[in-house]
Amino acid sequence: MTGLRELALVLGIVSVGLIAGLFASFAYAVMPGLGQTDDKSLIASMQRINVVIVNPVFLLLFFGGLGFTVAAAVLYRDHRMFWWIVAGAVLYGLGLVITMAFNIPLNNRLEAAGEPDRIGDLRAVRDVFEASWVRWNIVRAVVHAAAFAVLVVGAVTR
Known about the structure:
The protein is mainly α. The chain contains five helices and no strands.
């Protein structure tokens, strides 16, 4: 049982950390870079990213972060680390809610705008998408980073 609970904890920490890093990299590199491009380039790039990111590795990490962390909480329920894991899982779950409530609907609206070559007012589409998506991405990056930090602190101090 000890090996299984250690595995669940490690997989939880790694997957939460990788997702936190992904969202953080969008906050400090990807979106600032795309922000310096023209409307068509930003729209086309984000439309493509939103398609290719939905792949088995991303889905395993994205949902695994919560799944592995909850599994670890169950397996550590009689251990002093339990509340650290619960706090990490709750924060991570909040990050998922933010993604599903804000970022994904913005992604879907951007996709629904159609091919960039056929969009009549690229600036209007960008204006509806960019600032809000960036803001919510920063919020989810901070929340996911906090989940990662809580899990790491709990693991180190146990």
